[in-house]
Amino acid sequence: MSHLSGVNAMSTTVIQHVLSRLRDVGIHDVFGVPGDLSFPLNDALCSGNGPRWIGCSNELNAAYAADGYARVKGAGAVCTTYGVGELSALNAIAGSYAEHLPVFHLVGMPPMPAQQAHSVMHHTLGNGEFDLFRQMSEPVVCASAVMTPQNVAYETERLIYEAFHHLRPVYMAFPADLALQPALGDAWPIGSARSDPVLLKRVIETIASTLEGARTACILPGFLVARAGLQGLMQTVVQASGLPFATMFLDKSVLDENQPGYIGMYAGRLMNEDVREFVESCDVVLAVGTLLTDLNTGAFSARLDPARLISIGHHQVTLQGKTHLGLEMSDVLAGLAKQIKKRQNTIAFSARTLETVRDCDNDPITAAALYSCWSRFVRPDDIVVAETGTVSMGLGFAQLPRGASFYNQGLWASIGWATPAALGAAVAAPDRRVLLVTGDGSHQVSVQEISQFARLGLKPVIFVLNNGGYLIERLLSKNPASGYNDIARWRYADLPHALGCDDWMTARVSTCGELELALRRAAVADSAVYIEVITGPDEAPPFPLHLRDYAMSMYRAQ
Amino acid sequence: MSHLSGVNAMSTTVIQHVLSRLRDVGIHDVFGVPGDLSFPLNDALCSGNGPRWIGCSNELNAAYAADGYARVKGAGAVCTTYGVGELSALNAIAGSYAEHLPVFHLVGMPPMPAQQAHSVMHHTLGNGEFDLFRQMSEPVVCASAVMTPQNVAYETERLIYEAFHHLRPVYMAFPADLALQPALGDAWPIGSARSDPVLLKRVIETIASTLEGARTACILPGFLVARAGLQGLMQTVVQASGLPFATMFLDKSVLDENQPGYIGMYAGRLMNEDVREFVESCDVVLAVGTLLTDLNTGAFSARLDPARLISIGHHQVTLQGKTHLGLEMSDVLAGLAKQIKKRQNTIAFSARTLETVRDCDNDPITAAALYSCWSRFVRPDDIVVAETGTVSMGLGFAQLPRGASFYNQGLWASIGWATPAALGAAVAAPDRRVLLVTGDGSHQVSVQEISQFARLGLKPVIFVLNNGGYLIERLLSKNPASGYNDIARWRYADLPHALGCDDWMTARVSTCGELELALRRAAVADSAVYIEVITGPDEAPPFPLHLRDYAMSMYRAQ
After folding, report:
1. CB nearest A120 (choices: B294, B555, B557)
2. pLDDT at residue A553, rounded to an integer
3. Where are the alpha helices (DSSP H) in A216-261?
């Protein structure tokens, strides 16, 4: 986030001012669906001066795209119209809230005279009330405002501050008439929160000395490190400390997995028993920006002794069971980078990737072969967007090459997120290859957005796992054969053509030989790629299979 | 709604009891997307005893389908999972609220022990709070409850009563563990509201004598008549009175348009000047279950003198500017049917349908030709589901054949509604032909659901108007050429194949000759039909063109 020396809003309209400030904080593209009540926003976004307008097929998809964009760029924005638009985006906004992504939700509202007249107009409930939808958004944003010429200068600064401080979405509504009026007044950007210097010094010293006194220790770097833009500093701390690190599911790829200190994925008792044993046996575990969710902890099977856990949060540190507020992650990491003593030879073992499995050409595609192939397909610096369900749970345990990023929605876990999120990531990083790995049930939720890749000339590599239904649910439900786990049978590989994705490489593969061949072609394709991978209905990688065994502890339903 | 003589819930589980009562009130199909936190609901719906499970591609579409189903059957239901599922349905639920449709939203919740432990589990915001999503639904439902063994008997009766009394959605949440416990206790169905007999008698007499004393009078039967299931009674009143009637946009097809008393659509100054002149010149206008929304009133250009307006609502009557509560529409109509005096020769003129336009074979398809063709294609008893935007505004002014129903979402006006709503209507009325008429921009929002028609063996006739973007917005926005009004170019006619709709008749037509030929084939097809109609980007029927001229009064933005 840039800090200007003062923001004079007076030469622009309300909407222009907001868009200009959003561009200042790194938002160069706004996803959305237009609507008559948001025309002033749409017009401003297509004027060529501010962030670029990226039209999507529907609002849920647009908001997921903004979420994916924010994962790459640090912040994102989605623009919808009143009622009918904004409500469709709510699930995605809630996902950004859960997963700590600052997404600006810009909403066009009816003009003030219509509101004041309680007009029974389209896109309302017909009851003359105009503040209900803002209220509906409140639980899933950290701040909201109705923007007026009078408040736009300071409210914009407040909402930017809140979005980045909490790493959560904010809601900005624009009455159509007010959006076009000249902004009045000015305001100063709000500085980032600061640490209490005395407490900071003491806590850093305590952490450093605790680590020094520990026989064994390790680090769990978490996704909030990435959200806060502190991956460089975190890497410095890892190197300065010489400590090994593991990552949990939501945290995958927060640090490069191709370095000596990386020991692999930690998922409680569900996977990698050696990683679990080591992490849980350490005298000190330094968790930085992690969340102990059900999936991160292997269905709550992880046993991290609170007495041995040091947890550095975004604005607080928990140490020996006590939480100290007023400590900024950036300051704590910067202090540790200087003070931490380097250890030698503390690494117990090193991470491995998935076993390489090569079945025979005409064999049906097993889960083992599939995830092995996929993991070998990933290149340095790729962005992998992996859908909730078995695909992310399989690929999440592959070791990534240098510089590759892995995104999943491991807490909110809303199927359908990945396809539009991959669009958002591709828009945010046009110079990196984006791999979308999704399941058929999830892809059906939000399939429309593959046409936007084509419209924008982006070249993702898309894999759709066609196993005829919701595999993760087959594993978790009482009866895997329940009809509700089956979905309509589509010809996925024919979709790009129907959706106007011209000249894409497409393939439908159901044997290992076909898969290998398609991957070889995809690796050298100069176009977008869409591969439908057909497997049996129950082919699942290990993590979800183990999750099934721990389902009772996940739901804590005993 | 059936009235049992008492509901003993004790031999069933919580979810079974609710489903059994929903079946009693006419809900034989429940649309939804499964999820692990709603497995008990999904299992019960696939058990074969209660309403049938209709799986959809996503929750927004499922809820729209329930809305379409409710338009035909009087009530509908949608089942979603916690958070990620229910929030995606909210826009559709809000639409059902605005348009007065009793839709039961059944939501699976985490089991109570997980809630009580503030578990940081998937599908939550990670903050340990479990009541937020119910709160988010509150503004768009008329009642809600978390169902437990103790409350299920009486809460079910209360929610059924509220849904039908207000003709609005209700929200029912089921903690996964409690859903499977035996229901305890019993409860009596709540009787419908009753009219105050003294007031009723007086008001009916006043209405009858006012009508008798009027030189000219007419009726505006409204959509609430259909929602309340009172079309038969309304028809009786029309016949008993001998009065002519017109309908407004939302109210289209509430009564058969093929009868002598029908004079056409009334849309303020925007259309049918002769209808407007007659309606507004009447000494008395009897409006029954109408809403004076922007679209119904021709962008508020209608001028209905309150002193001459008698307005019969669902639970009230407004007469000489005064509103009398405690009067049920059913009682008022029944009383009027008996007391009203029949007039002779009061019909000023009769309705006409769209002009028959036959352009030459090789001509591009004009709006005039298109809507003329479409209107002639409609058969008696067809269900026409017309999407928000120019297609409903065009076809809405065609006169329908006997028994045909016309559904649009004229108040909430959320694009994307029509495709899944047509699915819901087709499930509700498998013996009637369903025509879906939609625009390309709207179809992109919710296109997935065409695959469910095929899965269920339903045979709709689907028309997709391909004009490359949001035509209604081109008409209403400052600059019709604004980039945000363009959408990704799809090959619509290829979609059924890609989406697994085997053996459908498909066509792509761009000349009048091709259109006529496709319609002739469609009329005799023994399969579902999907026709992509290509027109120029600005081909619009009269109503939206006139709406553009009245845009300022619609937004009341002066």
Report:
1. B294
2. 80
3. 223-227, 231-241
Q: Looking at the partner chain, which of A36, A291, A498 has a beta carbon nearest the beta carbon of B490? A: A498
> For residues B38 and A445, what is the distance between their CA atoms, to the nearest angstrom?
18
Please check whether residue A515 is in contact with residue A365, taking contact to mean a CB–CB distance below 8 angstroms: yes
Give the mean model confidence (pLDDT) for residues B77-81.
98
Nearest to B488 among A291, A455, A490 (CB): A455
* DSSP three-state, residue A109: strand
| Inter-chain residue contact A451 with B490, CB threshold 8 Å | yes
Q: What is the mean pLDDT of residues A488-492?
A: 98
A446 to chain B: nearest residue by CA?
A: B58
| Angle made by CA atoms B462, B467, B471, in degrees to the nearest 5 | 100
Whether the CA torsion B247, B251, B252, B255 is positive or negative: it is negative
Structure ipTM: 0.97
**Is the pLDDT confidence value at A5 over 80?**
no
pLDDT digits (tens, 9 = 90+) for A410-437: 999 999 999 999 999 999 999 999 999 9
Check if the beta carbon of residue B171 is closer than 8 Å to that of residue B105: yes
Q: Pick the more confident residue, A5 or B554.
A: B554
Q: How many CB pairs under 8 A join A and B?
A: 295
- pLDDT number for residue A357: 79
pLDDT tens digits, one per residue of B308-326: 999 999 999 999 889 999 9
- Residue A433 in contact with residue A383, Cβ under 8 Å? yes
What pLDDT shows up at residue A3? Answer: 42
DSSP classification of residue A120: -
Residue in A102, A103, A121, A104 with CA at minimum distance from that of residue A176:
A121
H/E stretch holding B108 reads strand B103-109
Closest to B355 measured CA to CA, from B367, B344, B346: B367
What does the block give as tokens for B338?
């008996």
pLDDT tens by residue, B436-462: 999 999 999 999 999 999 999 999 999
Counting every residue written for chain B, the total comes to 558
> CB under 8 Å to A99, separation ≥6 — which residues?
A67, A223, A250, A409, A410, A411, A412
The chain A residue lying nearest B79, using CA atoms, is: A484
Contact criterion met (CB below 8 Å) for B162 and B24: no
Task: Tell me phi and psi for residue A109, to 5 degrees.
Answer: -115, 160
Cα–Cα distance list, B362 to A126, A272, B158, B288, B508 (Å): 45, 68, 60, 46, 14
A412/A101 Cα distance (integer angstroms): 12
Confidence of residue B2 (pLDDT cuts 50, 70, 90): very low
Binary contact (A84, B95; C-beta < 8 A): yes
pLDDT digits (tens, 9 = 90+) for B460-518: 999 999 999 999 999 999 998 999 999 999 999 999 999 999 999 999 999 999 999 99
Range A165-196 burial, b when 16+ CB lie within 10 A, else e: bbbbbbbbbbbbbbbbbebeeebebbeeeebe
Tokens at A499, concatenated: 């959706």
